[in-house]
Structures are given as structure tokens and as C-alpha cells.
């Protein structure tokens, strides 16, 4: 079995960028992905619009032309697919990493193959593992940690947990499809990180009473047909058909630990790495993209982590 120069785990935009850099440097590489191409983007809400403009999402010096001031999910899927095809990137999709060994080289077994590599890049993002509420009833089918399309919730009583971009988009879209929407927000207001052209909309809908909102509150239990909310005024029970628990997501820390990456001891769980080279405490093991931020998933985006790929490949070439 040939030993690869680089095995890249994750075929998101940054993983693809790492593949492009490796290819252009003349290194042998494979990109493995447990889902489809740019799997995280595929699982975004159908109607999602990016905060960034299209040129900030470009990789491989390939122009990203959008019909909109801010590109949509559909445009991004088309763009990254075309980039992968243009460079004929060596991708292996629907392969999950199942075990890792490290002796003279990395030996990574997936659900379909065994790879040996001198270096490994982990670029797995953070969208696969939702932050749970850990409340009674969270495992009921009516509780969703992902949101795709608003039509499904038409004429239903919907609780949306959170006040981030995803929560606000879900609240507005389901409301406009005829849902009766109640937001449950731990903070005292809608997050200032919400897209600037959307935040006034949700604030106005709450002010006029079209969308109910409980601030400084938390969802504490879910049952068929109803849910309990702890508010500053005390516990209330409201009728409910669906809960959209859009409370954020986290990296696959178990995968990082399987590779021996040290995590910080605070609640941020920052994976140890050198920001100049992106190499972790394990020699030859690198991190790229959102995964570098640990639980601080707002630290890295496509636009500010595209240079990780160049740093990694330059460091590998210098050895």
C-alpha cells in the first residue's frame, strides 16, 4: 500500500482548499468525507443566505459569481462542486473514519478503506453534532436540532430555541408559512451577531406580537402536545407541535482525541495547535477551518480560514 503525503479528513470548503494546495505542490493526497461533498453546507437550511459576499468564499483562485449580493446555499453547493470537478480532486465520499493508529505513519481506517499517510489534516467543521438541551422529552420525534424548510411547519405551533442567525431565520420563515411561533431565548435580547438586514425584521415581528418571545428564559421540558418554559415570571406551559432546538453545534472532539490532540481544560475545549503552521501537538497532524476554534464556533469561518491550507502545505514541504 502506498503511503500518501497527506490524508485530508473533511470535504468542506477548507478541506477542498487543502486538497488544491496539496495537488499544486505535487503531493499525493486523498480527501475523505463521511457524507456528501461539502456535507455541512448541504445540511444548511434550504433558503439560507450567507453573511459573506461571494468573493470571500472563493477557493483555488476560482471566481464565485453569484446572482445576489450575498450568495445562497444552492449557489455555494454549485460553486464548490464545480471547483472539485475543475481540479479533479481525489475525494472519497461517504467514508467515515472508524479507527486511527500512528506508528511509523498514520494508519486511518474508514468504513470503506485503509489509508496510510505521512501527514493528516483534520478539517471536519462543526455542524454534525448539535448541542443538546438535556431536558425531559428532548428525544421525542417532534424535537429537531436541524432545520431545512419552513413548509413542514405550516399551521403548527412551533417553539424555536435560541436567538442566533439560524434560530431567527427559522422563526421568521416558519411564521411566514403560517406557523404560530414562540421563541425561547436565554439572553435578554436577539443576538447582535444576527445578520444586520434580518435583525430589525425579527425585532419588529416580536414587538408587534406576530412572534411571541420569552427572553431570559429556557425550555425545561417537552411532551406530546405541550412544552414547559421557565420565564422570569415563573414556569409556564404552552401548547406545542414542534420544537426547533437550534442551540448550536460542536466539533467532533472524540475524533480529535482519537488522534491524540490535546484540548484546553476550560469549557472552550480549544484543540492545541500552532497558528503559524496549524500543526497540533501530534507531529504531522494538522487542523484547518472551524475545528480550530473548539467550542468557540464563531471564531473561524470560510473567509478567514482559507489561508490554513497554504500554511499547512508550506510547512509539510519545508520538512
Structure write-up:
This protein has 319 residues and is an alpha/beta fold. It has 2 domains: 3-129 and 249-318, FAD/NAD(P)-binding domain; 132-245, FAD/NAD(P)-binding domain (3-Layer(bba) Sandwich), CATH 3.50.50. 23% of the residues lie in helices and 24% in strands. It has helices spanning 13-24, 39-42, 73-86, 165-176, 199-207, 253-258, 302-305, 308-318; strands spanning 3-9, 29-32, 91-92, 97-102, 106-110, 114-122, 129-130, 143-144, 157-161, 180-184, 212-214, 218-223, 226-231, 234-239, 242-245, 249-250, 285-287. Strands 1, 2, 3, 4, 5, 6 and 17 form a 7-stranded mixed sheet that branches. Helix 1 (13-24) packs parallel to helix 8 (308-318). The longest helix is centred in the first third of the chain and has 14 residues, at 73-86. It is globular and about 60 Å long. The mean pLDDT is 95.
Q: Which range does the strand content fall in? A: 15-25%
Order of helices and strands: EHEHHEEEEEEEHEHEEEEEEHEHH
Please indicate the count of domains. Answer: 2
**Would you tell me the overall average pLDDT?**
95
Low-confidence stretches: none
User: Which CATH architecture of the largest domain?
Assistant: 3-Layer(bba) Sandwich
Helical coverage, percent range: 10-25%
What are the main properties of this structure?
single chain; 319 residues; alpha/beta; FAD/NAD(P)-binding domain; 2 domains; seven-stranded mixed sheet; five-stranded parallel sheet; 8 helices; 24% strand
Write the layout of secondary structure elements.
Blueprint: E1 3-9, H1 13-24, E2 29-32, H2 39-42, H3 73-86, E3 91-92, E4 97-102, E5 106-110, E6 114-122, E7 129-130, E8 143-144, E9 157-161, H4 165-176, E10 180-184, H5 199-207, E11 212-214, E12 218-223, E13 226-231, E14 234-239, E15 242-245, E16 249-250, H6 253-258, E17 285-287, H7 302-305, H8 308-318
Helix pairs in contact: 1-8
Amino acid at each position: 500500500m502506498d503511503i500518501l503525503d497527506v490524508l485530508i479528513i473533511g470535504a468542506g470548503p477548507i478541506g477542498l482548499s487543502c486538497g488544491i494546495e496539496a495537488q499544486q505542490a505535487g503531493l499525493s493526497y486523498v480527501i475523505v468525507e463521511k457524507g456528501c461533498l461539502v456535507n455541512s453546507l448541504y445540511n444548511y437550511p434550504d433558503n439560507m443566505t450567507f453573511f459573506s459576499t461571494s468573493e470571500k468564499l472563493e477557493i483555488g483562485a476560482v471566481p464565485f459569481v453569484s446572482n445576489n449580493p450575498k450568495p445562497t446555499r444552492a449557489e455555494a453547493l454549485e460553486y464548490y462542486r464545480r471547483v472539485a470537478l475543475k481540479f479533479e480532486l481525489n475525494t472519497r465520499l461517504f467514508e467515515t473514519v472508524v479507527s486511527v493508529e500512528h506508528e511509523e505513519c498514520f494508519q486511518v481506517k474508514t468504513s470503506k478503506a485503509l489509508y496510510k499517510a505521512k501527514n493528516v489534516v483534520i478539517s471536519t467543521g462543526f455542524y454534525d453534532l448539535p448541542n443538546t438541551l438535556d431536558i425531559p422529552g428532548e428525544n421525542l420525534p417532534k424535537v429537531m436540532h436541524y432545520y431545512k424548510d419552513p413548509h413542514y411547519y405550516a399551521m403548527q405551533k412551533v417553539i424555536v430555541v435560541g436567538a442566533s442567525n439560524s434560530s431567527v431565520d427559522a422563526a421568521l420563515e416558519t411564521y411566514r408559512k403560517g406557523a404560530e411561533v414562540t421563541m425561547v431565548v436565554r439572553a435578554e435580547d436577539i443576538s447582535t451577531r444576527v445578520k444586520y438586514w434580518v435583525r430589525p425584521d425579527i425585532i419588529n415581528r416580536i414587538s408587534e406580537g406576530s412572534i411571541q418571545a420569552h427572553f431570559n428564559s429556557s425550555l425545561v421540558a417537552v411532551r406530546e402536545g405541550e412544552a414547559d418554559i421557565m420565564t422570569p415570571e415563573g414556569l409556564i406551559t404552552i401548547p406545542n407541535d414542534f420544537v426547533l432546538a437550534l442551540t448550536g453545534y460542536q466539533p467532533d472532539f472524540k475524533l480529535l482525541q482519537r488522534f491524540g490532540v490535546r484540548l484546553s481544560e476550560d469549557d472552550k475545549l480549544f484543540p492545541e495547535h500552532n497558528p503559524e503552521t496549524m500543526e497540533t501537538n501530534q507531529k504531522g497532524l494538522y487542523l484547518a477551518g472551524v475545528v480550530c476554534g473548539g467550542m468557540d464556533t464563531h471564531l473561524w469561518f470560510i473567509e478567514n480560514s482559507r489561508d490554513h491550507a497554504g500554511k499547512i502545505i508550506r510547512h509539510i514541504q519545508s520538512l
